[in-house]
Amino acid sequence: MPGRAAHGGATTTASPIGADAAGADVLTAERAHLAAAREALRRMREHAASLSADMAADWVSRMYLESLLDQRVAALADHPDTPLFFGRMDRDGGQDRDSPDDEPAGKRTGESAEQSVEEDELTTMYVGRRHVHDDGGDRRPLVLDWRAPVCRAFYQAGPADTMGWRTRRRFGFRGGELTAYEDEPLDAPVHTSALLTAEIERPRTGPMRDIVATIQPEQDVIVRADLGRTVCVQGAPGTGKTAVGLHRAAYLLFTHRERLARSGVLIVGPNRAFLAYISSVLPALGEVRVDQATVDDLLGAPTGTEPAEASAVKGDARMADVLRKALWRHIRKPEEGLVYTSGVARFRVPDHEVREIAAGLRGTTRYAAGRDMFAQRLAHRILVLMEQRGGAPDDRVQDQVARSRPMKRLLDAVWPKVTPELVLHALLSDADALRAAARGVLTDEEQAAILWARPPRSHRSAKWTAADRALLDELGDLIERTRSLGHLVVDEAQDLSAMQLRALGRRCASGSATVLGDIAQGTTPWSARSWDEVLGHLGQDGEVTELAVGFRVPGTVLDFAADLLPHIAPGLAAPRSLRPGAGALTVRPSGDPVGDAAATVRGLLELEGTVGLIVPDAAVGAHAEALTAAGVPHGVLDRESTGDGDRLQVVPATLAKGLEFDHVVVAEPAAIAAAEERGLARLYVVLTRAVTTLTVLHAEPLPAALRAPAAP
Ligand SMILES: Nc1ncnc2c1ncn2[C@@H]1O[C@H](COP(=O)(O)OP(=O)(O)OP(=O)(O)O)[C@@H](O)[C@H]1O
């Protein structure tokens, strides 16, 4: 039925399934295919469960194999609420068959060859979350994993390039039930998909969900970028940066499974609440082995705070130079040579030779490796002396010398063992040490800003700030190399300091990265002004691409927030929303924003979807109390928690980044803007969290940058 538009209802509406007889027949055939695929998946699961790890040679291998088999069985689980496939592609001769199950299936793929379906042989393919095949000898594919190369056409094919396909069919589901379909002839002008619109409009009910059925062409290009390429995405609020980053991780894991299983993939997000919010996306895509961490998880949580000027200096990339000098200053000039006694014989390396060896190694390698090499070179000198006196020492003797007491004494005097904490404590406690390391790099004022006024007695009692943590990590790497992962996805990257970016860069030094963010949402004292700068600090060559279409925020709300852009990111164009959102915005003066907010959210809870009450951090307690007093059930988000799954969350403004709610109430924008240096950027973040409605309540006048819209 080429040219047919939509049949049945969209995913969320009650659907007149099969509005005409032909449509009903198609749905019946597609449901039969779904049932067959479910049944085949069940058999694949049973088969996987019947495999035994007994053939493993030893206990460790058996445990490993058992865990692999368990993972395989888990990956084959059928979630009754998620459709096994969401799309279908047909070439000529494919779609008009009576039943899709009758047709030739292209290359007979097996489980181990899921990615090698030969495109030319497929006349019809179903695209879904995982590969399903029947259990005939030929293992005919019933559903292809969306990440298989052939499935790129489902996302990319269009009038400009049909990629050899004739029609794209999208399916509408309710729970696991197929309720509708929609056909799109690929050579006709692009039309707006009702099913895509329904998916975008679907109320949010909990954590973030995957977008695998509706990835847009410009997003798909980023998702499928090669593993070797670092991609940096600038995108306005709600353009799908986070979603794209997560799908890219899933794509890379599928495409380079073995390599990345060894080297690892890590998602880095701004805080725990955010990580909890995105935590179900990758498991829903069948990827359970991806680590997710905050920068604090990686570098250590701060135990102290400091003025913004101090963090700004410590976050600057020039600190790398200062730290390098500070570390190598721990090597001291040898006062004495090395004397080694073996029986009655004494062997001596004179002090000038010890000096030469130390000077030759200084700064050429990691500090700890340099220390070992220093010991080995000295030991080798002793070995040569032994040989000169007629001995025939072997390598074991060299090791013995390298571990001997006199050597240890010399090492402690010349090339002492150090820790990052010890070096940083010494640097920040002592104006002379700081001046020596920072000469020509930091100004006197900058040195004064980071020097401790009252140094802690030892590095053990020091309270380390977030900026210090990045410095300690840099020192850690100068002492011993940090292990690199295969791929890093860094979200909200605009908020990271140069030194934090360097810390992340070390963790993907031999891999690649997906860097996501929005310059306009930068809220830290060190927020990035350009992506080239960010990539430079990360040490990655990457291309910057832009996502311009918003999927979350209604147009009226986005336009309202965009008035802030000239003040926070003058170079950026105003974002565009896919959804007009008439009536989505209410801005209301209020004599009592706390009381009003409680009444407003109570009303919003009558509607479908999640509700976020975003307030100045200092007002969280007052709002929570008012809600409790009014008997409105709610959760309160903090840095470590997710608000316990309540439909209404009280959200401190500083934790709103990256989150979204169907209905958002913002109480007192002026106080949010005034609370921090980049307060207007914070307000921009806060005003762009809503999917359906935004209500702004204010006792104080709105910040001048925000024009109050005319009353409806
Ligand atoms: N192709 C798509 N199909 C359906 N929904 C989408 C699509 N792309 C993004 N979305 C939805 O839009 C919303 C915003 O996406 P996401 O959070 O990834 O945006 P973001 O750019 O990271 O936003 P922010 O900068 O505000 O954190 C999410 O609900 C996401 O599921």
From TrEMBL:
Region (Disordered): 84-121
Record-annotated UvrD-like helicase ATP-binding domain positions: 214-554
GO terms (BP aspect): recombinational repair
Keyword Transcription: no
Gene Ontology terms: cellular component: cytosol
Ranges annotated as biased composition (Basic and acidic residues): 88-111
Entry binding sites for ATP: 235-242
Keywords: ATP-binding, Helicase, Hydrolase, Nucleotide-binding
GO MF annotation: an example: 3'-5' DNA helicase activity
Protein name, per record: AAA family ATPase
Lineage, top ranks: Bacteria, Bacillati, Actinomycetota, Actinomycetes, Streptosporangiales
